[in-house]
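Customer ticket, subject: "Can you confirm the structure for SGNH/GDSL hydrolase family protein?"

Message body: Hello, I'm evaluating your service for our small team and ran a test protein. I'd like someone to confirm that this is what the system normally returns, since I don't have a reference to compare against.
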Amino acid sequence: MKKREIVLVSIMGILTIAIVLFGYKYAAGKKEALLNEGEKQTETVSEVVSSQESEIAESDTSEAYAQFLAAFAENRSNASVVDYLQYVHHHTKEVNVAFFGDVAVDAAWAKSAIAGIQADFPLENLTTSFFSHPSDSSSVYLSSQYVQEMAASSPDVIFYTIPTKTDQVVDISLVDSTQNIYAIYDEIRAALPDALIVLVTPPPAEAKVADWNSRALDYRNYTNNLVEENSAFTVPLYDLHADFLAEVTNRSETLTNFMDAAGLELNEAGQKLYGEMFANSLRTKLIDTTAGLYVEGEKPAYTPIAPTLVVPEVPATVIEETVSEATVYEEPVYEESTYVAPTYVAPTYVAPTYVAPVDESSDIESYTPEEVGSY
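Agent reply: Thanks for trying us out. I re-ran your input and got the following:
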């Protein structure tokens, strides 16, 4: 073979190999492109399906929430605080909760309960604040600026722990204590007409039980008196004191196990249990929320309680005697007596007669004055 033919054959061989390699590479690139296109189409389809599912889920959620809000609006006179918080949060996009009265600053039981409902319900923008006055009586609250200080933070819900423990110490009457607590409630409502105020009874204090003041009263008498009076009103109330003691009894425990060494404050276990009682009340206790925010409809008018509060006196015990049919009861006849004025008789004065004593036992002879003078 000539040299020229050899060169041509070599060139043809190289070209053939190049064409084959190019075709292979082209086929591989085309395949990869097709696969990528398929993946893109799959992703697009998935995104479309996911978007459709999300829209359906969001639509279902929105519809369910709309139904919840409508049901709350119709039954807000008998609803839970959690429902009310969601109602406010939906319309204002945030909600502020305040703890006021005989409550510790940053009370652990309160913070744990709020954190729990915030995790379980759509309450992302929920804030809490504390206005703590545990050492003051109800009389001090009325003469202070405590309500104005709290009102400046514009809370939507206020948990007002009543100061009955301090009222025991200052020794005021049951009537005055109850009157003062409602007067404070009226003052808060006047300052914050759209806030929901919930009265809360204080945690137990073992050392104060039967530590009676001069009126033979302890904080339980003041607390129970207000709870009894509140049955005549629609003021929201959580009787956590009674709930706590009932749960301690249900667990066959003693109150000492939940108190600090002094018997005045709750220990860690007590804080935890009290927080559970509070959280349960937030979720399950139905109260009248018509005093709070109104978005639709006309808000009921409010009449202050304290000026019209009449604390009933304890009725006298009447003992009724059973009279048999054979017994004849005759009503006594009243006879009017005649008054006779007494006659005054002046006493007659009689001069006393002096009689000299005679001592018969004496051996000394007696003499007359004449006989004495003769000596």
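A couple of notes from the result: The chain has two domains: 1-74, 77-308. The mean pLDDT is 80. Feel free to reply with more questions.
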